[in-house]
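User: quick one, fold this
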Amino acid sequence: MDRTLARRTLAAGLAIGVVAELLLDRSAYGVNVPILIGLILGAGWLVRRRGVALDPLDAWLPVTSVVLAVFVAVRGDPLLALLNSAVALAFAGASLVAMSGTPVTRRSASMVTMMAVLATVAASVGVVSVIRAARPVTGARTRSLPGRLAPIGRGLFLAVPLAVIFVTLFSSADPIFRQGLEDLLGWQVNLDDLVTRILFALAVAWFVTGMLGTAAAGMQNAQIAPPEPARSLGAAARTPALALTASLGVAEALVVLVVVDLVVGLFVGLQVAYLFGGQDTLVAAGLTYSNYARRGFFELVAATGLAGLIVVVLEGVVAHRSRSYLAALIVLLGLTGVVLVSAALRLRLYQDAYGWTELRLYILTTIVTMGAALILMTALAGLGRMRWLGHGLAGIGVVALIGLNLVAPGAYVAARNVERAIDPSLIAPGGETRLDPEYLGVLPDDAIPVLVEALPRLPEFDRRAVIRLLLERRDALKTDPAFAGPASWNLGRERARAALDSLR
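Assistant:
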């Protein structure tokens, strides 16, 4: 990286750090997130390596990052906003790597994982390399004023965070020092707040500069050379890949699969007899069928994940794939599919009795996503193309997250629970027959318009409880300063405000 480019990268990182502090300080999630993601991608494009082109197969990376970031400003759901922000940032990081001329999508899953680790390290410590590259060349003349000030600026960039930390520690330890500092400044200042804001801006600048350094300098230091130009994803099969050492014999792998198959098969047999077949659970376990069937879906989802992990690990370390090994592998995937169906049935019976929550919706999404992953794994295992599993799982995950955004979990859960309150026939025998005001009160803003619209149709008892919580939410949206600034504008929140303003 030449000195001019390094200085531009450093300046861009500092600017984004300051903007991030201004946009995020005391502000709820909203348009601030897509603005920051857009700034990171735009800065990466401006400081990217010259003479290299973005691989066409990587064009979906920045698009996905922007789409997920925009959903943060659309959905009024804190958990969904957190997921969207984290995945959008991850795709932004992958986009910066791609902008450096290092193809990402063409790589095998193992190599992408390696690149992700290296990119994370670069984001953490890459600023040091950028600062070093921004220094004047040894022996060059530095008599001009800018040349003399440059070392001072770089020194301040490293020294200010340390000084702020010491000031914070000393101020907390000694009130006289704190008071003296305030007297020296000549006005009362909330030192803790100022220090926190400065540290936050510098922290963001530190990591963003490291990320931008990847776009500017590439990943050649990690000895990840670009593959030969290719026109299709299949060309990635000819690129170097970081593979796990094939150190496990096929006999050992077959033993693992057979043992796991027996355990999972035994469980599946019981599911066929009692859960699906209707055998007497009271005699077998002392539980009624409803109590037996409305439990265990968390554990079964975890078991499905474990089975999938076993398949992935074995595929990575087995020396070679015999027919018996492949058959045992396919059997495990098939049995795991039945376990997943059992989890889905148990979840549905539980929802019929007690209604929906966001957690149960996320579990259902996880079950559907795992089902798609099992189908993909079965197909890839049969074709001997398990190295593409990472790409497939990434695509399934993105589709699932976008699907959640389109559904709007808070609004969906509120609508289903309102339907149960209006139509008791939807409730399973022995289930909850009334709305839970405490739970409705913690639903995100996306749920508010649904509740306001349903008020005329709710039973009187439920209507009074819902009106009370809606009025409390209206007061919170009007008085909470985190929702007041333009940086926190959010479509879901604005719809909630409009719906609440219609209450009399």
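User: anything notable?
Assistant: The radius of gyration is 28 Å.
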